[in-house]
Amino acid sequence: MGWNEPPDKKNKDPRKDPNRDPWGGRNQDEGPPDLDEIVKKMQAGFGGLFGKKSSTTKHGSGGGSPAIIWVILLVLVGLVIAYNVTHQIDQQERGVVKRFGRYVTTLNPGLRFTLPTPIDEVVRVNVGQVRSINHRASMLTQDENIVDVEVAVQWRINDPFNYLFNVRQPAETLRQVTESAVRSVIGKSKLDFVLTEGRSEIASRQKALIQKILQDYAAGILVVTVEMQPAKPPDAVKAAFDDAIKAREDEQRLVNEAEAYRNDIIPRARGEAARVREEANGYKASSIARAEGDAARFNQLLAEYSRAPAITRKRLYIESIESVLTNTNKVLLDAEGGNSLMYLPIDKLLNNPPSGTSGFNVPRTVDSESAGRTVQDIRDRLTNRTRGAR
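RESULT FIELD:
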């Protein structure tokens, strides 16, 4: 039978009612579905799940046992309560327990149990995570110069209770504390120190000051590190700063060159002074020794002179004449008291010829050694006379 055929009045099966749509819906002429009928169908369905068949009433609807529904509800409530009272705290976490909004205790890592919600509320706080904030601003130094500074602060939570209850906005508080500490340290430092070798020292001072302020606030925050990026001047005066830095570098280069020259010249001057000092000490020692020797020789000569003045004077005269005439080419002979045979010092004459001549024409057969005995003979005769006088 088609959709447009008239309804069959003898057909009492509602499923074959032509006024219904193909999906089992009601006709628009009928009213809304009965709520009691829907509830009875649901009860019949639950009864069928637990193996009970629905009984047919005179109205054609089935009914189930309400005890099963209460059991299911109790099981669901038990599961919800068990889920609410059991808490698995990770290793890097701490659980802050609030009972009716008031702090009770802090749960350590592991499986922990509390009262169900809404009696107890557990707030998990990650104390192992290292967080960071960056702060960048233009600041005024001690010598009234403007410099751009960028600071990175790494921190973590070390006290969950203080972090949650003592400070309303811990991250914002840390940001404000960082800005205050950085401005305080930069304001007490000069520009040259900030731009050159003072970066690490400034970062250390900033970390100590930030941690001190956070401890005074009891914020429950531990500052791990403070890293300061290289400071730089503002863009408007960057060219002037570059010139100043270049001049400072030239100054440092000249200072290093001067120190290198000083390190080179001073050791050499000290060495030269030490050498002169040692030579002077040596000359002093030799002069003293020579003077002491001359004095000793004079004392000995004085003793001899006191015994035989005439002979001593003669000996001194002869020795003086000998020392003077040793380097000359003249020969003095003692004709008196000598024999008739004279010996000429041929070797002396050959070694020291008179100036302007090439030497004497002396026969080669003459004994040169015998000629050198003349002065020695004179000395021996004087010595014998001195001994005879004694």
